[in-house]
Amino acid sequence: MMKLLLLMTSIMNSYCFNPNDYVTIPFLRFPDSLSYNVLEINSIFEYLIASVYIGQILVWSHPAPKTPDRIAQTKEEMRRGVKALFYVILLTTGIIWKIQPLNPYYGYYETHEFGFKEFFVSLIIYMVTFDVWFYTSHIIGHMPFFWKHFHGEHHEFVEPGAYAQDAVHPVEALIQGPIGHFLPTFIYPFHPVCHHIFGLLTSVYAQFAHDGRWDPAGHTLHHYYYSCNFSIWGLCDFIFGTGYNQQKYPIPYIPTWLRSKVNSKNQDKKIM
């Protein structure tokens, strides 16, 4: 792992490294130095092309029985997700094109070294800032007005699948996604490559959390109980006491695909 990190940081620090020498994408190019940005967008045409380019095995490997209802839910998650992602992609590429160059830390690592310390600090700031932002906007989303018009749409999936990660109202998708992702870069200088790796891993993490089989912050419990586990990583839930508590929620949540196994074990215990 350390060797991989050293290789990544050495590449980031190689200002002569030009990704265009290694990767060719029709109608789109990378900046000559990745210390500034990950995409070079100079016109509305390039902006639209980037939106097209930036665009799950988890669903079909999930142990939940592929009943007609489950398949219909998956299709609905995908439909809503594609709709929301359309706006997310437009805003994300727009921020890369127009907003990030205004960032006071833009191009910071063109003249400063990037090492393990910078990587570690940026990771902590990214996780804390994103968690606070997501938690706050999520709590607001549960207020009656915002629930009715925005966030309630996402909670129609009581037992979500991986695709439910993006199956949200477009307004909510913009607030909790791109804004939460880019906000930390105005607090601390992030290397563009490192920053976008964080974003990719966060998206994958969120898909696993909705999938339910690997869910360290208990997001599937949030879909079941509604009033606990609001944050991404569980940090804000721990601080503000809004995490899942078995005494407060005495009825345990058992996923449908596990209930038959649990019932059969209970029957075996009764027989013994």
From TrEMBL:
Protein name: Fatty acid hydroxylase domain-containing protein
Protein's organism: Paramecium octaurelia
Pfam family, one: FA_hydroxylase
Ranges where the Fatty acid hydroxylase domain occurs: 124-242
Compartments (UniProt record): Membrane
Signal peptide limits: 1-16
Principal location class: membrane
Keywords: Membrane, Signal, Transmembrane, Transmembrane helix
One GO CC term on file: membrane
GO biological process, one term: lipid biosynthetic process
Stretches that traverse the bilayer: 40-60, 81-99, 119-140
GO function terms (MF aspect): iron ion binding; oxidoreductase activity
